[in-house]
Structures are given as structure tokens and as C-alpha cells.
Specification:
Helix content: 40-55%
Strand order of the largest sheet: 1-5-4-3-2
Low-confidence stretches: none
Shape: elongated
Radius of gyration: 23 Å
Order of helices and strands: HHHHHEHEEEEH
């Protein structure tokens, strides 16, 4: 929690530090008290340092969130090189391996006329060398094979620290459209069995 506050400093904390610094500086200046002015400058310097650390240092959580956003955009753009670069060598999505994911993402984007994807929820939790991301998306498929233009889906993505960077290790669909747990089994068998790389 302390490291998250240090490296992912929320805007409200930076605002609070700035208010305290300004109050000390104004009060010290009005009363001609150097101790208050020095305290104000120290608090201001602390706020600037917090902002700089938060801006320039990405935590594993932030890296996983940025990587997940990049993955969603890459799927929409059919950018197989970016998709491949974000995946762990042993990445899996149900019955798919890394190359299945790279190929299948493009194939299904084409088959279902994927035009855009809006992230509606994105959160991450770190435990040791893993970061688990919960992702919810509304994808747009105008005029495609689906009976509707927009479809909601939820996913759980596990990112792993490889020592040289954070990569997506496991991708698990939680909900696709209005499908329940029983329907997810049918989706898994129909769409995520071994895929033919044509």
C-alpha cells in the first residue's frame, strides 16, 4: 500500500500536499516566520518529488494496465506484431497457445467485423511476480456476423514478470455477451479449441 502511494500517487494526495505547502508559505510570509516558510518549501519539494516519482516510474500494476490497453488496441488494429510482443512464450487462452492467440485475435476480429473496443472497467492486483487484471470491454461489430452491433465481455488476464519485462501469461474469458457459465463451456468448445493457421 505504501509503495502504491509512492509510485502511483493519487491526484488528491498531491493536491493536499500542495495546499499544505501553500498554507505554510503564506502563513510564514505573513507572520515573517522563517521556520514556517522553510517547512512550506520542504513540503512543496516533497510534493514535487512525489509527482516526479509517480510520473516517471511505472509500477508492475501500471505496466500491466498499460499493456492490457495496448493489447486491446492491437486486437482492434489487427496488429499481430504488437500482440505477439505482449504475450509470454507460454501464453494460453483456454485451449490456445501463443501463436493461436496471435492468429485467432486477427481472424475473429475480421470474421466478426470488429471496429472498436471501449474499455469500461480495468483494475489490477499484484501478488509477488504476478499481476491479475480484471478487464471489461464493449466491442463494436457493425454489420458483422453477430446479431447485434455491440457486445460486452469480461476477461481476467494474468501478467508475469519474466525478469526482462512483464508479459501476458494467461487470458481467461469470464463473460461474453449475456452468456452464463454453462454457455461459456459451449463458447470454449466452439471458438477456443485448436485453431487452424491458414
Amino acid at each position: 500500500m505504501a509503495s502504491q502511494l509512492l509510485f502511483e500517487t493519487p491526484w488528491w494526495l498531491l493536491t493536499l500536499v500542495a495546499i499544505v505547502a501553500i498554507a505554510l508559505l503564506v502563513s510564514g510570509n505573513n507572520r515573517q516566520k522563517n521556520q514556517l516558510k522553510v517547512a512550506g518549501f520542504i513540503v512543496l519539494a516533497l510534493g514535487i518529488a512525489l509527482a516526479a516519482v509517480s510520473f516517471f516510474v511505472d509500477t508492475p500494476r501500471e505496466k500491466a494496465i498499460k499493456g492490457t490497453r495496448a493489447f486491446v488496441h492491437a486486437v482492434v488494429d489487427r496488429d499481430q506484431n504488437t500482440i505477439r510482443s505482449l504475450l509470454h512464450p507460454n501464453a494460453s487462452l483456454l485451449g490456445w497457445n501463443k501463436e493461436d492467440i496471435v492468429y485467432g485475435a486477427k481472424q475473429y476480429a475480421d470474421d466478426f467485423n470488429l471496429k472498436d473496443a471501449m474499455i469500461t472497467h480495468l483494475d489490477a492486483v499484484q501478488t509477488d511476480t504476478l499481476v491479475t487484471v480484471d478487464l471489461s470491454v464493449i466491442s463494436q461489430h457493425p454489420g458483422g456476423k453477430l446479431p447485434y452491433d455491440n457486445m460486452s465481455s469480461s476477461w481476467q488476464i494474468t501478467w508475469m514478470d519474466t525478469g526482462t519485462g512483464w508479459l501476458m501469461k494467461d487470458i481467461r474469458p469470464i463473460q461474453i455477451g449475456g452468456v452464463d457459465a454453462q454457455g461459456m463451456k459451449a463458447i470454449e468448445q466452439r471458438y477456443f479449441a485448436k485453431i487452424s493457421h491458414k
